[in-house]
Write the C-alpha cells for this entry.
Amino acid sequence: MTSTTVLITGANRGIGLELTRQYLEKTDYNVISTARNINNAHDLNNLKETHRERLQVLSLDVTSDTSASNLSLELKNTDIDILINNAGIMGGAHQEFRDMDYGDWAEVLATNSMSPMRITEALYENLKRSKGKVVTISSQMGAMGKEGAGRIAYRSSKSAVNKVMQCVAEDVRRDGISVMCVHPGWVQTDMGGSAADITAVESALGIRQIIEELTIEKSGCFMNWNGTEHVW
Ligand SMILES: NC(=O)c1ccc[n+]([C@@H]2O[C@H](COP(=O)([O-])OP(=O)(O)OC[C@H]3O[C@@H](n4cnc5c(N)ncnc54)[C@H](OP(=O)(O)O)[C@@H]3O)[C@@H](O)[C@H]2O)c1
C-alpha cells in the first residue's frame, strides 16, 4: 500500500492537533507533526505512544530561519505529499486604530504571513518530488471582500498570507505542486474560544476533505472548511 505523508505545523494543540489525530486514524498516512516546544507537546507525545510507526514529532518554530533549515536537513530524504501551514497567532489586545502595539503587529505578520512561505521554501524539494499540496490555514477575517473591522494586526496578516500563497501557487505550478488557503471556520480552540461555531473535529474533517479534492487545476484557491469557495 502506498502511503501519504502529511506535515502539520503548530500541531501541539487546537486544529493542528485534531488534524494529526484524524490523519493517524487513516492507516495509509504518515504524519509529521511539528511544535515549537516538543517537550511540552504532551498530547502529541501521548499519540506517539500508540502510533510510533506513523507519527514523527519534530521541533519547529515557524518564525525562525534556523529552525526551518534544521527541519529541512532532518527531512532531506522524506517526500512530503501535504504540507499544512497551520501555526498562527491572534496577537495581543492592542491592535486597533489609535491603540496599536506595533511590535506585536510585526510578530503577528512574521508568524502568520511570512512563515508559511518560509516553511514551503524549506520543504520545496520534498514537495516537488511528490508533486505535493501546500495548504495554509488562513481566515475569513483577512478577506478583503468581506466586511469587518478591528483586530487589525490579525486581519492584515491573513490578507497578506492569502496574497503570498496566490503568488506561490503560480511559482510552483510548473512543479505540479498545488496551493490553497483555507478558512477553517470559527473553531472552538484556545484561539477561537468556547463560544465558537464548530468543534476542531468538524473543522479538521472539512479541511481533510477539501485537501483531498485539491488538484493542480484548482491551485491558487481560497476555500471554506465546508467545501465552498471563499471570497478573497
Ligand atoms: N480557531 C479559529 O476560530 C480560527 C479561525 C480562523 C483561522 N484560524 C487559524 O487556524 C490556525 C490554527 O488555529 P487554532 O485555533 O488551532 O489556534 P491555537 O489553538 O491558538 O493553536 C495555535 C498553534 O500555533 C502554534 N504556533 C504559534 N506560533 C508558532 C510559532 N512561531 N512556531 C510554531 N508554532 C507556533 C501554537 O504553538 P504553541 O502552543 O507553542 O503556542 C499552537 O500549536 C491558525 O493559523 C489560526 O489563525 C483559527
Q: What stands out?
A: The longest helix spans residues 102-122. The helical segments are 14-25, 42-50, 65-74, 102-122, 124-129, 152-172, 200-213. The longest strand covers residues 29-35.
